[in-house]
């Protein structure tokens, strides 16, 4: 039943809610009680002056009688009905139910949303237990140490006499392994207690730092004014590992702000536009510093948002600043086709690629990447290479003018079946 045919049901519901008799309402709007009865049972359509008069008598807006429950409420109820399809819910009568019993409809919708939120919480915690590297490494250390203690104890418990030298050695090993087990167990318990104390369980330390930086809008006025990293409170970061990572990121931020002060940066953008190479030459800095600086500018300085991803030579992501439309995986490896990883094989060579992420709405981005050695090399030492990628959205007027490389977030959720770089099957279909 369409929503505009349920005006009568809403009139009846409102009348009963305020305790008004049918005959009294009919008399007030100057119609017969029998005609009002037909209206309330949706057997007569009404509008115009009569609808306005009835709405005034019921002390509501006419739109409340004609429109009824909002679309969001109806959409939630339909989703709940589809989710519980084996129960045989009358999905075709949802509008009627919401119109006649708006309170119950809102209660059911709220409960359905609450159940969905709890299910997502369980999935998040399960995903964290599966992927958290600290937890996995700590458990591995505890189990390995316990196995070593068991082996040593089994040797000492064997019948027969051991030479004094070997017996003392086994006792020493047993003591050292027991101490290591105690320390590992204490560390694991402390980390679990620490994670329980964090109100927002953002996962591993890198994710906590990313959430911390995002919470400040990727911009720190204290450092822009010339303050040191100690001027930025890190109270929101409960773990020591997260605070240590944050200090490194804030140190880079402070150095970039000193080399490229905000007023001068704004003036250079007005003169040169968003050209990272020209801007880097203007301030005599490297492209990695310029990419970081562009990603840290306050809202309104750039005409659109930009994203940033930094990784090391192993491909592990060290920092992410998301951008709308470009999916960044929370766990696991990223797409190997990102220019971020191409740059690792060509250090100090800037790479620019136009990419398109597959999905329901393919959006194009210009990805600018460069890899660089983290510090000056010494003789007979291997470089510590890092790579950074700046992500710029392509304006709608420019999309489709040049070929775009299809990329994904990670193989697990990428629907592109013929990708030569695929590592594992996707859980999504090609047409997703």
UniProtKB/TrEMBL annotation:
One of its GO terms (molecular function) is DNA binding. Pfam families: HTH_3, ScfRs. Residues 11-65 form the HTH cro/C1-type domain. InterPro entries: Cro/C1-type_HTH (IPR001387), Lambda_DNA-bd_dom_sf (IPR010982), ScfR_C (IPR018653). CDD domains: HTH_XRE. This is DUF2083 domain-containing protein.
């Amino acid at each position: 039943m369409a929503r505009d045919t349920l005006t009568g049901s809403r009139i009846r519901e409102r009348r009963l809610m305020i305790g008004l008799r049918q005959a009294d309402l009919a008399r007030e709007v100057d119609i017969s009680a029998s005609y009002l009865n037909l209206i309330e049972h949706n057997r007569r359509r009404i509008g115009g002056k009569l609808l306005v008069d009835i709405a005034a008598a019921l002390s509501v807006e006419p739109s409340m009688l004609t429109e009824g429950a909002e679309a969001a409420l109806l959409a939630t109820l339909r989703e709940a009905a589809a989710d519980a399809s084996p129960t045989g819910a009358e999905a075709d009568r949802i509008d009627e139910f919401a119109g006649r019993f708006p309170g119950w409809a809102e209660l059911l919708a709220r409960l359905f949303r609450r159940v969905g939120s709890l299910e997502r919480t369980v999935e998040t915690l399960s995903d964290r237990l599966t992927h958290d590297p600290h937890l996995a490494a700590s458990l591995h250390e505890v189990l390995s140490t316990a196995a070593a203690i068991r082996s040593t104890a089994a040797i000492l418990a064997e019948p027969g006499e051991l030479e004094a030298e070997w017996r003392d050695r086994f006792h020493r090993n047993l003591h050292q392994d027991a101490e290591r087990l105690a320390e590992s167990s204490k560390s694991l318990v402390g980390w679990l207690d620490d994670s329980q104390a964090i109100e927002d369980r953002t996962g591993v330390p890198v994710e906590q730092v990313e959430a911390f930086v995002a919470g400040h809008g990727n911009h720190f006025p204290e450092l822009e004014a010339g303050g040191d990293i100690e001027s930025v409170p890190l109270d929101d970061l409960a773990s020591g590992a997260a605070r240590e990572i944050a200090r490194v990121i804030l140190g880079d931020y402070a150095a970039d702000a000193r080399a490229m002060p905000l007023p001068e940066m704004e003036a250079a953008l007005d003169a040169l536009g968003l050209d990272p190479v020209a801007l880097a030459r203007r301030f005599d800095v490297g492209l990695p510093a310029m990419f970081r600086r562009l990603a840290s500018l306050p809202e309104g300085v750039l005409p659109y948002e930009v994203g940033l991803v930094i990784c090391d030579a192993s491909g592990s992501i060290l920092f992410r600043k998301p951008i709308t439309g470009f999916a960044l995986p929370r766990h696991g490896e990223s797409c190997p086709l990102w220019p971020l990883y191409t740059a690792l094989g060509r250090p100090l060579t800037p790479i620019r690629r136009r990419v398109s992420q597959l999905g329901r709405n393919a959006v194009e981005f210009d990805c600018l990447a460069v890899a660089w050695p983290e510090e000056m090399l010494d003789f007979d030492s291997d470089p510590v290479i890092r790579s950074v990628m700046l992500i710029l959205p392509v304006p709608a007027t420019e999309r489709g003018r040049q070929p775009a490389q299809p990329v994904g977030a990670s193989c697990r959720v990428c629907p592109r079946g013929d990708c030569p770089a695929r590592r594992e099957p996707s859980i999504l279909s090609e047409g997703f």
